[in-house]
Amino acid sequence: MVGRLVVVSNRVGDPRKAAAGGLAVALGDALAVSGGMWFGWSGKVVENGPRGEGELHVQQSGKVTLATIDLGREDYDAYYAGYSNRVLWPVFHYRLDLADLDAGFFDGYQRVNRLFARKLLDLLRPDDIIWVHDYHLIPLAAELRALGCQHRIGFFLHIPLPPPLILAAIPAHEWLMRSLFAYDLVGLQSAADLAHFSGYVIAEAGAELLPDDHFRAFNRLVRARAFPIGIDVNEFQALAETPESMEMRDTLREQYARRQLLVGVDRLDYSKGLPQRLRAFQRLLANYPENQQSATLIQVATPTREGLAAYDEIRKELEGLAGQINGDYGGLEWMPVRYMHRTLARRRLPGLYRAGRVALVTPLRDGMNLVAKEFIVAQDPQDPGVLVLSRFAGAAEQLSEALLVNPYDTGATAEAMQRALRMPLGERRERHQALLGRVCEHDVHWWRRGFLQALASAERAVG
User: Fold this and answer.
1) What does the alpha-carbon distance between residue 45 and residue 77 come to, in Å, rounded to a whole number?
2) Quick one: angle between helices 274-287 and 309-329, nearest 10?
3) How many CB atoms lie within 10 A of CB 211?
4) 128 given a catalytic annotation
C-alpha cells in the first residue's frame, strides 16, 4: 500500500505501551511500516476552554506520530458525554428508551468534528491514507471534504448499526448517513449491519446498488462491506504465558477444585445483558438442582461511564440480583455468584478464561464482542471450555459452533448453560477446534489488511 497511514479515533493508543490492547498493537504495526500518524482526543478536558478550540500536542512513539487535541468542558459534554454516548450509543444498540434525543448535543458533536478536521488537515501529507474509527467521528470525512481534502478516507464502525426504522428515530439521521458518503469505504462488523446500511440508504435515500459493494446516493459514491474484527492471537497467547495469568489460573483451580466455573467479563453497560444473564443462572440453579454446591458464576463488570443514571441503575440491579441468588442458594462453603465491579488486569484475563468450564457472552446487542474470541484462544485444546454466545453479538456470525442463545429467553439460556456444563469431552474438543481455527484465520491483522486493501481499490468518492 502506497502512502502514509493516518489513523483517527476518539482516543489515541500508544502501540509501544504494555497496556495497549490488540487493536492498538495491530494499528501500530500498520502505522510503523510507513511511519504513520495516530490522531485523536488527548483525554484532557479543559475547564472553561473555548468552544470549538483545543491545544494540539504532537509527539513521537517510535516511528509513529501521536497527535492529540485537548477539549474544553462544553465541547466534551456535548460531543462525547452527550451526542456520542447519550444519543448514538443507545440508539445504535437498539435502546431508544435510553436515548436523550432532545438534549441539544448535536451542535457540539458537529463542532468537535469540525475542530478535528481543521487540526488534522494541517498535519496531512499529499499521499496520506486516512482511516477513521467509530461513532464519535462519523461526520469527520464530510468536514475534511468541506475544507478541500482529496485524500482516500475510510471509516470503520466498531459498534452495531441498527435497522433503518431505529436509525430514523435520530432527529439528524439523514445528515448522519449522508456523512458516510463522504468516505471512500465504510466498514461494518457483520453482514447484519451491512444489511441495515443497505436497507437504510435504499429506503431513505433511494440509493443505487452498484457492483463490488458500491452504493450511489446523495450524488456520491461509497463502498460498504463487512469486516469482522478479530483479536491479536499471538499477543493473547503470549499473555496466557505470563506469571500473572498462570497464577490466576492456578489459584482459581485450587480454590474451586470442587466447582465448575462459569465466567463472564464485560463492561458494566446495559447492552451486555448482565441482569438477564444472572436471571438465567438463577434459573439454572432452580431447574437443575444438581448444580447447587457445584456451579459458580464469576462475573467481572468493569466500571464505565459512571455517574450516568442508566449505569447507576444497572449496577444496583446487578448487585441486588447477585445478593438475592447468594441469599437463596448460598451457604457457608459455597456462594453461587462472585460479582466484581472493578477492572481486572489484562494479563490476568487468560488465566480466568482458562479456569472457566463455560464462558457466558450474552449481550443484548454487540458489534462484535472480542471476549468470545479471547476465551477460545485461552482454552486448553485437550480439555476446552464451552462458549455460550448471544445470537445478537456480531461474533455469532463467525462462531457458529458456540452454543448460540437468545439472552431475552431466560429458560433457554439456562438450558444452554446446563448443556455446556454437561457437554462430553469429544464434543467440546470438536467445537473448540473449529472455533479456534476460525479465530486464528480471521485475526486482527487479517481484518486490518482486508480493510486497507479494500480502501485502496475502492472507486473514488471525490475527484
Assistant:
1) 9
2) 10
3) 6
4) no
Provide the b/e sequence for 89-120 (b: ≥16 CB within 10 Å).
Answer: bbbbbbbeebbeeeeebbebbbbbbbbbbebb
| 120-146 residue pLDDT tens | 999 999 999 999 999 999 999 999 999
In one letter, which amino acid is 158? H
For residues 461 and 463, give the distance between their C-alpha atoms in angstroms, rounded to a whole number. 7
Catalytic residue among 75, 184, 366, 443: 366
Write down the mean pLDDT value for the chain: 94
- What mean pLDDT do residues 76-92 have? 96
- In order, the DSSP letters of 353-382 are HHH-SEEEE--SSBS--SHHHHHHHHS-TT
- Active-site hit among 100, 107, 158, 213: 158
**Strand-pair category, 214-217 with 220-226:** antiparallel
Instruction: Give one DSSP letter per residue of 306-355, joined into a string.
Output: TTSHHHHHHHHHHHHHHHHHHHHH--SS--SEEEE-SPPPGGGHHHHHHH
pLDDT digits (tens, 9 = 90+) for 29-79: 778 777 899 999 999 999 999 999 999 999 998 889 999 999 999 999 999
What is the structure's pLDDT at 463? 41
Residue 8 has pLDDT above 80, yes or no: yes
From the number of C-beta atoms within 10 Å of its C-beta (0-12, 13-18, 19+), residue 282 rates as buried
Give yes or no for residue 461 having a pLDDT over 60: no
pLDDT digits (tens, 9 = 90+) for 219-251: 999 999 999 999 999 999 999 999 999 999 999
CA distances from 44 to 137, 185, 207 (A): 18, 30, 40
Q: How far is CA 72 from the centre of its chain?
A: 26
Note whether 245 and 347 are within 8 A (CB). Answer: yes
Share of the chain above pLDDT 90, in %: 88
What the block records as the C-alpha cell of 32 is 510503523
CA atoms of 63 and 310, how far apart (whole Å): 42
Q: Are 414 and 375 in contact (CB under 8 A)?
A: no
Tell whether the torsion through CA atoms of 136, 138, 141 and 143 is positive or negative. negative
- In 12-55, where do the E strands start and end? 37-46
Between 214 and 102, name the one with better pLDDT: 214
What sign has the CA pseudo-torsion 319, 323, 324, 330?
positive
Known catalytic membership, residue 151: no
Q: Which domains does the chain have, with CATH numbers?
A: 5-230+444-457 (3.40.50.2000), 233-441 (3.40.50.2000)
pLDDT of residue 262: 98
CB of 377 closer than 8 Å to CB of 436: yes
